[in-house]
């Protein structure tokens, strides 16, 4: 692969222009715009819940148990008289917190390991790939389940369990491009000029794989949200009474015939969030693809 | 020639064995990370009442006084000779439990794969027939839904809808195996297989769509059209046949995922498969059950991936040459 085929290492002024261009391209594409809006709505809900604007998600009020949607409670109340919208929003905040932390850890560790394995080869690569293969040998949800069952559960340990599952994906998507970047002329030029390995990796290799990593982060966020929700549905997520989207759906199963809203609200929040993140990932992939830049 | 053909295969098998050893180490370490050991797992809170000597005797009995490496290899030796441990609650061996639950999950995975292909491939053909049109967008929207609606939500909604509209609950009767009562079994498997199949349709659809579009842009397809071959013949003989390889690979990988990913659906629909065995083991703190079952699932997963890889080499002549 020649240097021309890849975006060159950005000069100091270039990134800002490129970045705003990416955002413009993202918002101009239908899936990018829809993804941004859908994700934005749920993030806004989560932030409002986090700030306490929507009220206390665990406050019980027996006087208004199992009320349908009304002006007072937009999505009704559950069997303890807790507001379903408030709880769903707090659940979304909880899901997003776990997903973001999990993907941040997986992205950092996985990208670092992938870059090292791709750039150095030899034993480093063999060790990294061996561990990657072992982690890939488990169906993802099962590994998360087994890890979550082995630790005392808090939001952080759940996030770490999910992170371990997603590390190998980042290793796999970054290693390939780094393998070919290693042979690119501008990287070789850096080696010839006597730049340190750290400088080459940080200034010349990393900027050229950011697009791949950003897309992977977005898609991984949607999987992490799903994994967290599935774990809490199975009773292995964040412990109650903290609201979690998965455990809300689980509790709603017993109530759904007399109070459909208890399942509708958390279910809708999960679907909107995951659809949004998936569309955003697709949109970003197109927006960051250098092939489409001329268009 | 023969050496060239056999060499990468042997290497692939060796790689799979190495991975399995790593898997065994990881599963072993995970169990050791748990608070408590076999003694507290068996006796529960009563373990606190043990005297120093009783505890030492039990540790010697379970081999817990041995170094970790020795414990690992004796455990591995047991596993390799088919001794997967036993459930303290039921007294059943994990091997017997797995012999009952693995076929159930396997059946579920096969049914879901059939449903996933039956939805995904036609949808991809429909989408790819007019790329970037309304038709394409609607096909892709279905794919996106399959990717984004969690199985536990879809399953719970389907159960509620079936109960409300049809007055039907597939969990009402005891689970029937395929051999004991095939009609009831298929009836009970229908909803879980639909939920899993819908989720599977999404990646199948995405892969098939891009494979079809890719093949269609190639010269031999243009040539076929140019020399006047009927469009349906070009579609079936030239396009679909060549698009089979990526679809097959995708299906193989997804089939492996289903073996572990079925856990949620098995829980929703009370299907006594291998995923539910892990979950029950976790709930009842039967760590031997969890450990061995996770190991069995990982083994199946690695084997399915290996088979997919080998099948891929058989189907695609270009890979066979390498």
What does this structure look like?
The complex is a heterodimer of chains A (295) and B (322). Chain A has 295 residues and is mainly alpha-helical. Chain A has a single domain (29-50, 75-292), classed as MetI-like fold (Orthogonal Bundle), CATH 1.10.3720.10. Chain A has ten helices and no strands. Chain A has helices at 14-28, 30-51, 84-120, 122-136, 140-149, 155-182, 185-192, 197-233, 245-252, 261-288. Chain B is mostly helical. Helix content of chain B is 79%, strand content 0%. Chain B has helices spanning 2-33, 38-43, 52-62, 68-80, 94-129, 134-148, 151-166, 182-216, 219-226, 231-268, 274-283, 287-315, 317-321. The termini of chain B are close together. Classes of the chains: A mainly alpha (295), B mainly alpha (322). Chains A and B meet through helix 4, helix 5, helix 8, helix 9 and helix 10 of A and helix 1, helix 6, helix 7, helix 10 and helix 11 of B.
What's the structural blueprint in terms of helices and strands?
The complex is a heterodimer of chains A (295) and B (322).
Chain A: H1 14-28, H2 30-51, H3 84-120, H4 122-136, H5 140-149, H6 155-182, H7 185-192, H8 197-233, H9 245-252, H10 261-288
Chain B: H1 2-33, H2 38-43, H3 52-62, H4 68-80, H5 94-129, H6 134-148, H7 151-166, H8 182-216, H9 219-226, H10 231-268, H11 274-283, H12 287-315, H13 317-321
Helix pairs in contact in B: 1-12, 5-6, 5-8, 5-10, 6-8, 7-8, 8-10, 9-10, 10-11, 10-12, 11-12
Low-confidence stretches of chain B: none
The CATH topology of the domain at 100-286 and 304-321 in chain B is given as MetI-like fold
pLDDT < 50 runs, ≥5 residues of chain A: 1-17
Estimate what percentage of residues of chain A fall within beta strands: under 5%
Main β sheet profile of chain A: none
What is the terminal separation of chain B in angstroms?
11 Å
């Amino acid at each position: 692969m020649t240097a021309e085929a890849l975006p060159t290492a950005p000069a100091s002024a270039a990134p800002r222009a490129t970045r705003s261009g990416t955002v413009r391209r993202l918002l101009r594409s239908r899936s990018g715009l829809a993804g941004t809006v859908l994700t934005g709505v749920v993030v806004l809900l989560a932030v409002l819940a986090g700030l306490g604007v929507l009220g206390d998600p665990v406050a019980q009020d027996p006087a208004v148990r199992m009320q349908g949607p009304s002006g007072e409670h937009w999505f009704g109340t559950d069997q303890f008289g807790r507001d379903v919208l408030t709880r769903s929003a707090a659940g979304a905040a909880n899901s997003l917190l776990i997903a973001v932390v999990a993907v941040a850890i997986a992205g950092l560790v996985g990208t670092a390991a992938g870059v090292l394995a791709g750039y150095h080869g030899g034993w480093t690569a063999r060790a990294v790939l061996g561990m990657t293969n072992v982690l890939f040998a488990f169906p993802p949800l099962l590994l998360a389940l087994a890890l979550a069952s082995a630790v005392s559960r808090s939001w952080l340990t759940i996030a770490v369990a999910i992170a371990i599952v997603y590390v190998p994906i980042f290793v796999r998507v970054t290693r390939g491009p780094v393998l070919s970047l290693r042979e690119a002329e501008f990287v070789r030029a850096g080696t010839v000029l006597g730049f340190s390995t750290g400088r080459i990796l940080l200034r010349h290799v990393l900027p050229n794989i950011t697009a791949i990593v950003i897309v992977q982060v977005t898609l991984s966020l949607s999987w992490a949200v799903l994994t967290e929700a599935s774990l809490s549905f199975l009773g292995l997520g964040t412990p109650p009474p903290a609201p979690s989207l998965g455990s809300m759906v689980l509790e709603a199963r017993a109530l759904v015939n007399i109070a459909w809203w208890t399942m509708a609200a958390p279910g809708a929040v999960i679907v909107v969030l995951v659809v949004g993140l998936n569309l955003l990932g697709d949109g970003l992939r197109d927006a960051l693809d250098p092939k489409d830049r001329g268009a | 020639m023969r050496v060239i053909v056999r060499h990468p295969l042997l290497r692939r098998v060796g790689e799979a064995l190495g991975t399995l050893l790593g898997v065994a180490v990881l599963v072993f370490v995970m169990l050791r990370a748990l608070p408590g050991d076999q003694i507290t797992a068996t006796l529960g809170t009563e373990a606190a009442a043990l005297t120093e000597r009783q505890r030492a005797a039990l540790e010697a009995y379970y081999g817990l006084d041995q170094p970790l490496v020795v414990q690992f290899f004796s455990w591995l030796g047991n596993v390799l000779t088919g001794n997967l441990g036993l459930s303290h609650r039921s007294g059943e061996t994990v091997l017997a439990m797995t012999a009952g639950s693995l076929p159930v999950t396997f059946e579920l995975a096969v049914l879901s794969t059939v449903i996933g292909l039956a939805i995904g491939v036609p949808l991809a053909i429909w989408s790819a027939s007019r790329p970037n049109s309304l038709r394409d967008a609607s096909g892709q929207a279905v794919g996106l839904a399959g990717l984004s609606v969690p199985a536990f939500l879809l399953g719970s909604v389907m159960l509620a809808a079936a109960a409300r509209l049809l007055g039907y609950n597939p969990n009402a009767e005891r689970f029937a195996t395929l051999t004991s009562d095939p009609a009831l079994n298929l009836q009970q498997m229908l909803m879980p297989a639909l939920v899993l199949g819908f989720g599977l349709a999404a990646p199948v659809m995405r892969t098939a769509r891009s494979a079809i579009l890719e093949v269609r842009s190639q010269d031999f397809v243009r040539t076929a059209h140019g020399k006047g071959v009927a469009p349906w013949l070009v579609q079936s003989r030239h396009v679909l046949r060549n698009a089979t390889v990526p679809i097959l690979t995708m299906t193989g990988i997804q089939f492996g995922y289903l073996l572990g990913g079925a856990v949620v659906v098995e829980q929703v629909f009370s299907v006594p498969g291998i995923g539910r065995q892990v979950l029950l083991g976790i709930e009842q703190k039967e760590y031997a059950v969890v450990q061995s079952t996770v190991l069995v699932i990982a083994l199946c997963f690695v084997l399915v991936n290996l088979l997919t890889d080998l099948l891929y080499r058989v189907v695609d002549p270009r890979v066979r040459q390498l």
